[in-house]
Amino acid sequence: MQNSPAALAFFIVFFVALWFAAQALENADVFNGQASAGQIVVTMFLMFFALLGVWILRPKIERFEARMATSAD
Predict the structure, then answer these.
(1) Which end of the chain is more exposed for a tag (fewer CB within 10 A), N or C?
(2) How many degrees, rounded to 5, is the angle at CA 30 between CA 33 and CA 22?
(3) Is 5 helix (H, G, I), strand (E, B) or coil?
(4) Rounded Cα gap, residues 39 and 6, in angstroms
């Protein structure tokens, strides 16, 4: 079985994008502004396994949305 370099590059870019998205979500949810690497990794894998992660990440996104709505007023 031969893997293509394009597939490897795709997955590297994909996981880097997931890392930054998870980092942004965790830093927005944490009150002190800095999430730990462990929190970011867990959120990244929950985003990767979306069928499971959607139920776990939804409350976090709703808390962030509620905070943004109150700060806009």
Answers:
(1) N
(2) 90
(3) helix
(4) 30
Q: How far apart are CA 54 and CA 60, in angstroms?
A: 10
**Residue type at position 34:** Q
**pTM for the structure as a whole:** 0.74
- For the stretch 17-64, pLDDT in tens is 999 999 998 888 867 678 889 999 999 998 888 877 888 888 888 888
Answer whether 37's CB lies under 8 Å from 19's CB.
no
Element (H, E) at 70: helix 50-72
The two three-digit tokens of residue 42, written as one number? 């867990």
Question: Please, which pLDDT band fits residue 16 given cuts at 50, 70 and 90?
Answer: very high
End-to-end CA distance of the chain: 57
